[in-house]
Design goal:
This is Adenylate kinase. Keywords: Kinase, Transferase. InterPro entries: Cytidylate_Kinase-2, P-loop_NTPase. GO terms for molecular function: kinase activity. By secondary structure, this protein is α/β, with parallel strands linked by helices. The chain has a single domain, classed as P-loop containing nucleotide triphosphate hydrolases (Rossmann fold, 3-Layer(aba) Sandwich). A five-stranded parallel sheet has the order 2-5-1-6-9, with helices on both faces. Strands 3-4 form a two-stranded antiparallel sheet. Strands 7-8 form a two-stranded antiparallel ribbon. Helix 5 packs across helix 6.
């Protein structure tokens, strides 16, 4: 495991797990949304695809993402492992709602100084809405990719509960 994608729906814990795996395996961690949102007002970074290609060319990395469409195939072709957090909505939704509420109320800065605002809760791309609406489709697409011959060399670790993920993470301690 030297090039790892942590995939799942919004709010499944991809970033938290990717950071933990990064520390244990001493692999550089790259937050996909931070690379994508390059400036204020959630402005996409014009160098996003180029920068992601540069990182994906390196021998070791971990990304906390299924991958934005511009780089999805590239990441899946170059990864050697996909850690799939396939948790049910009853697990994911409280997580994403708590996170967004905390970010909104505390005005936390995320992704290059951007902040979640109350008005964002009413947009179609708010994390809580995308987590709910994309849950089934995201799972189906990850499953299809995991079985796709183009990505056959990939090792896919499929976790359906946080306890399964925690047990696996403990196996990485001391490596």
């Amino acid at each position: 495991m030297r090039r790892i994608l942590v995939a799942g729906v919004t709010g499944s814990g991809k970033s938290t797990l990717a950071r933990a795996v990064s520390r244990r395996l001493e692999i550089p961690y790259h937050e996909m949304d931070e690379l994508y949102f390059g400036g204020p007002a959630w402005t996409p970074n014009p160098q996003f695809a180029t920068r992601t290609r540069e990182i994906a060319s390196s021998p070791t990395w971990i990304f906390d993402s299924f991958g934005y469409p511009e780089v999805r195939d590239l990441l899946w072709e170059r990864a050697d492992t996909v850690v799939w957090l396939d948790y049910p909505r009853r697990v994911v939704m409280p997580r994403v709602l708590r996170r967004s509420l905390r970010r909104t109320v505390l005005r936390e800065r995320v992704f290059n100084g951007n902040r979640e605002k109350l008005a964002d809760w009413f947009t179609p791309d708010h994390p809580a809405r995308t987590s709910w609406t994309q849950h089934a489709a995201r799972g189906a697409e990850i499953e299809a990719r995991a079985g796709d011959a183009r990505f056959a060399p990939l090792r896919t670790l499929h976790f359906t509960t946080p306890k399964e993920t925690e047990r696996w993470l403990r196996t990485l301690e001391g490596l």
